Amino acid sequence: MIIDYRYHIASLVAVFIALGIGILVGSAVVGNEAIVKRQQQLADRLEVQLEELRQKNEAVQARANNLEIDNNIQKQFEKQVLPPLVAGKLAGKRLAIVETNSYGFRDDLVNTLTMAGATVQSVTTILDGFDLTGRKDKLVSELNLKETEDNAIVRYLATETARGILTGEKQALLNTLAQAELLKLSGDYGVPVDAVIFIGGSQDQSLVKTEILDYPMIDYFLQQKLPVFGVEETNVTYSYMKAYQKKRISTVDNVETSPGQLALVMAIAGKPGHYGVKPTAKQLLPPFETAVGGVGNGKPGQSVSGNPRT
Q1: 228-231 and 94-99: which strand pairing?
Q2: SS3 for 97?
Q3: What is the average pLDDT score of the chain?
Q4: CA-to-CA distance for 218 and 160, rounded, in angstroms?
Q5: Is 249 helix (H, G, I), strand (E, B) or coil?
Q6: For a disulfide at 296, which of 158, 191, 215, 270, Cβ 3.0-4.6 Å?
């Protein structure tokens, strides 16, 4: 809105200049007082409009400044209240993170999980959605793959990557994929974990491979009786939330924010559901316990899986 007003003001200034030139030319060449008077009336009206736009622009700018101040205060508030809200909620939990969109994620997510008492055992990033372009023949040979169709190969690699994260039995395969720049590995593999967090959502439609990439991995972890949680950031162009929810796992669609990170911690602690700000979310945050008891305290009737109640 501010940009629009500035554009209009610039346009009016240009009109004033043109009118000034027109008045001078009209006076010198034509000598017609009626034309000059008409031009002066138009200039007066434009001057009034210019003043109105200037006042509106100042009002909008003041509003924008106030909103920025409010936003900064909100961020400070969230930063201060988040640590005590999550403290100890995930004590002793060991987590694995799988990122399928190749973009990376904010360090503060891991910081929040750590503040909650959890240990992030490993972070596995699938690069370029296991794009086989220029790599297929070499991978088929090195890994002795029976599959030759691209989607079948991606499904196989996804499942075996999940197996490697959990059991450590596929370290050679993981290393081969890392050398082929299809995987980025960080942390300890083959270490038992209590839950797995999938970071999805994409800005590039070509990377959206939930059915052949995310699903095989999610299915493997669910078969091992591990809770799985699907998250993404607010501003992704292609959301994975609907796809993740088809697997009946908990989701958070604004994980880059303090409310999103709090929702994820509470979901892992025993409050499964679909949280965030998008239409696929049921509510912003899980319900808080009353003064008696606390979040994730193991009270009767409280679910401890990653699957939302139905």
Answers
A1: unpaired
A2: strand
A3: 84
A4: 12
A5: coil
A6: 270
Spell 13-32 as b/e; 16+ CB within 10 A means b: eebeeebeebbeebeeeeee
> Binning pLDDT at 50, 70 and 90, where does residue 15 land?
low
3-state secondary structure of 259: helix
Q: Strands (DSSP E) along 156-304, which ranges?
A: 183-187, 195-199, 228-231, 250-252, 274-275
- Residue range 22-76, pLDDT digits in tens: 555 555 555 567 777 777 787 788 888 888 888 888 888 877 777 777 667 666 6
Reduced to 3 states, what is the DSSP secondary structure of residue 271? coil
Distance CA 20, CA 304 (A): 76
pLDDT per position as a tens digit, 125-156: 999 899 999 889 999 999 888 888 999 999 99
Residues in the chain: 310
Measured CA to CA, the distance from residue 226 to residue 164 in angstroms comes to 15
Give me the DSSP letters along 216-238: HHHHHHHHTT--EEEE--TT-SB
CA distance 110 to 94: 12
CB 289 within 8 Å of CB 295: yes
Q: Which DSSP helix (H) or strand (E) runs through 121?
A: strand 119-126
CA-angle at 266, arms to 265 and 268, nearest 5°:
65
Contacts of 104 (CB under 8 A, 6+ apart): 125
Ramachandran quadrant class, 126 (left: phi over 0; alpha: psi -120 to 50; beta: rest): beta
* Total-model pTM: 0.74
User: What is the C-alpha separation between 167 and 43, in angstroms, rounded?
Assistant: 79
CA atoms within 13 A on the CB side of 128: 11
DSSP H or E stretch at residue 44: helix 33-86
